[in-house]
Every structure is written in structure tokens, then in C-alpha cells.
């Protein structure tokens, strides 16, 4: 019996889908997101028989379930807290310390969700000619040629940069230049990193470098909703620039509403992610 045929797909140097044609006639399809989130590969029997999912072993399935639940819950809570912080800023008493405290608590959950998302990638089952196998547990790896690793790493980096912004927001007595340098710049950089991560997420799920529409796919909706949240965060960040001439924000209402609606997008994305489990 000869070796199975193989076809690799993806964008640029990234391979996000592999297809094996086995001598018996079965076709096995591995997709990086499905293997990482669902812990499965797709097996297509010859003829018109329906596809079936071939799961990884129980160790990988249990591991992926726990990581998915932690990451998704962290984003749900973190998004809710960010929305609450924006609501307090828009409708509350104007106590900046109260809003900063709520944002900081939400940021901790975003940090957790970002790192656990990276752990999902690092500890995903690996494929060998269409079969999934479990590696030993790792807390860190460096795999920049994997688009899923790159997307998760950039997301985690974005949450850490947001953390700098949130810590600096507790400082008082800052000049306008210091506010823009210590608070506004990290905010914008974090938003850019979130947008880059979302684009890489589309690259993984679309298997090409441009956007696609898969409205029947749960994974596509998760990426799309989170990317919408990133766009709203960026709009909020741009509106939060402090004008040197007046010392006021470009538009405080847009800044608050952008944060509130963007944060709710991440909460919705987390709720959807709870359904994307092995």
C-alpha cells in the first residue's frame, strides 16, 4: 500500500488545512482551528456517506475542554467589566477612580483569557497523516510559523499592553502630554494588536489571506464578533485622545460608547466560544 496523498492549504507560509487521501478511499481533513478547539479531524468515507469526526484521545479532549471553558469565561467576565466601566464613565458620577478600578479588574480577566488562549494553541493535539496525538503539557512554546500561535500570541500581547494603559490610568496630576504618552498610546497599540490578531484569526479560518464569509460556521462568528469588538475599541481609543490645546478628549461619548459596545462583543464572543468545545 502506498503513502496517502496530501494537500496543504493556507495563506503565505501558514498551513491551516491538510487533506490526506488514504488507500482505502477515505479522505481525512485536518483544520488547525477544528483540531485545537474541537479536538477532531474530519473523515469523509468514499461515496455519498456523511462526514464523521475522528476525535483525539481522552487526555487531549479533557485538556481542551478545560482550557476552552477558562478562556471563554474570562472573556465573558472581562468584557462585562469593561462594559460596566464604560457605563460608569458615561452615566455615573464621573468618578474616574471608580471607572479605572472596574477597567483594571476587567483587564485581569482579559489577561487570563489571552494567556489561556495561547495555552490552547501550545497544547493542541498534533496531526500525523490525519491522526491526532497528544503532546506533553507545556506552559510556553515559540512557534511563529503557526498562524494560530501567532494570532493567540499577538492577542495576549495586546492584553498586556492594555494592562499598562489601565495601570497608568490610576496616575493623577499628569500633564496632557503625559496622559497621551502613558495612557492613550498603550491603548492604541493594544487595539492595533487586537486587530492584527483578529485578521490572523480570519486567515486561519478562511485558509487564505483575505476575508471570507462562513455564516454557518460557529468559529467564523466567534472571530467576526471579536474583530468587531476590536474595531469598536479602536474607534474608542481614537476618540479618547486628549487635545493639547483644550485638555479635553476628542469625543468622550464616542470613547465610552465604543468601549462599552466593543466590550460586549467580546462577552458575546466568549459565550459563543463556550459552545465551540470538544
Features:
5-stranded antiparallel β-sheet; single chain; alpha+beta; 278 residues; two-stranded antiparallel sheet; 7 helices
Number of helices: 7
Q: From the alpha-carbon coordinates, what is the Rg to the nearest angstrom?
A: 21 Å
How would a textbook summarize the main sheet? 5 strands, antiparallel
**Could you report the average pLDDT, rounded to the nearest whole number?**
90
Overall body shape: elongated
Beginning-to-end CA distance, first to last residue: 33 Å
- Structural class assignment: alpha+beta
Helix fraction by DSSP (H/I, runs of at least 4): 55-70%
The largest sheet has its strands arranged as: 1-2-3-4-5
Count of discrete domains: 2
Give the strand content.
5-15%
Low-confidence region ranges: none
The tally of strands reads 7
Order of helices and strands: EEEHEEHHEEHHHH
